[in-house]
Amino acid sequence: MTKKTATAIFSLAAIAASKGKTPPEWVELFPAGPEIKARDGRNWTLQPQIVVEAFKLNDGPLAIDYEHGQAHLAPQGIAAPAAGWIVLVEERDGGVWGKVDWTPKASAAIIDKEYRFLSPDFDHTIDGLILRLNGAGLVNRPALVMTALSRVSPEEKENPPMSKAIAKALGLAEDADEKAILAALTARQDERSALCGLLKIETGAPAEAITAAVTKLQTETETALASVKSNTSVAEVAALKTDLDQTRTALAALQKKDADREIDAALDAEIAAGKITPASRDGYRAMCAEKGGLERFTALAATLPVICAPSDLDNRNVNTRTAEDDRDPVVIASLARKYQDDQAALGISVSISEAVRHVEETKTK
Question: Which of 23, 55, 343, 362 lies 20 to 30 Å from 327, alpha-carbon distance?
Fold first, then answer.
């Protein structure tokens, strides 16, 4: 997947201090999509869940600096201090908002109106799909800042780690392409939309609103059950109970999918780091599936030593072997599978035992 980096001002809404005493705790980073347009005319496609998932995978706050100093000054070795830190990102009504921990200096500057605008820095595909937020900058002259940044920022380059991380978070294979990732995100959004439809709330409502709607429906059902006094109300109560059961089932399924994705991502990361073996995956997965299990596993993994170095087979030429490779069963198995694939391409079916025998005979020649 290729990406470019850009910054933009999406509206003239200033960062207003709350009653002139404190800067806002929550700021809008991207307006409601899916199609969003910057003040200078550039267009992008926003799928909020992609930005939210990428922020979670970053596992740390993102800096808000002054005049995009991280892009202009830091590469030259010039200090580019932070004005604040984006510590939380969430979807709101189709847009993306961030919770900011401002520094005292930046707070004073915002209160004194020394800075009025916020410009997000983000990565996007060559087709304009926003992939992740890198940070933001306090600016005062958006048009000039945009012109300057556009001369140096859009640099096309490969970004396989992020695409792999997003794919893994969605429960896809690491080599999933952009189309598969978008399809999975769309399916996930459809699940949320269906649940919101059952709850009769706005599509795209945040998790807190969904939970509140489920609680409200449960309360209404219990109230209706308590007030049953005649046969004419039984049908109404039964309908409410059916709605509640369907909603609970849909919510439980959605929560389980999210939990499974988080668990698999955590296990894959520790296996890749060499702290646990693939053979122990099922045992650790059972641990993570318990209440609070993922948190306990994460804490445990942080204390574990590396017990098996990650394989470098992915970086090797499969046709190049060393003396150590000749005795390595993993290498032999890899070569055997390649031989099977080569023969299959010629229309010849070869069993794994025949393939292994071929590899062993070849290495003795």
Answer: 343
What's the token pair of residue 175?
Answer: 């080599």
Q: Could you give phi then psi for residue 3, rounded to 5 degrees?
A: -140, 160
What local confidence, expressed as pLDDT, does residue 105 receive? 94
The more confident residue out of 274 and 174 is 274
Strand bridging mode 62-66 / 130-139: parallel
Distances (CA, A) of 63 to 5, 55, 78, 100: 16, 12, 16, 9
- Amino acid occupying residue 282: D
> What's the pLDDT tens digit per position in 326-345?
556 666 777 878 888 898 88
- The distance from CA 198 to its chain's CA centroid, rounded to whole angstroms, is 26
How many C-beta neighbours within 10 Å does residue 332 have?
A: 18
Q: Which pairs count as long-range contacts for 246-252, CB under 8 Å and 24+ apart, including other chains?
A: 246/198, 247/195, 247/198, 247/199, 247/214, 247/217, 248/214, 250/191, 250/194, 250/195, 250/198, 251/195, 251/210, 251/214
Among 35, 91, 27, residue whose Cα is nearest residue 64: 27
Per-chain mean pLDDT for the chain: 78
* Mean pLDDT score, 347-362: 83
**Whole-angstrom distance, CA of residue 275 vs CA of residue 298:** 11
Instruction: Extract long-range pairs of 203-208: CB within 8 Å, 24+ residues apart.
Output: 204/48, 204/91, 204/93, 204/94, 206/90, 206/91, 206/92
Residue 104, token pair as written in the block: 């005292």
Comparing 88 with 250, the larger pLDDT belongs to: 88
Whose CA is closest to 240, among 253, 252, 227, 251? 227
pTM value is 0.43
Cβ(133)–Cβ(29) under 8 Å?
A: yes
**Amino acid letter, 71:** A
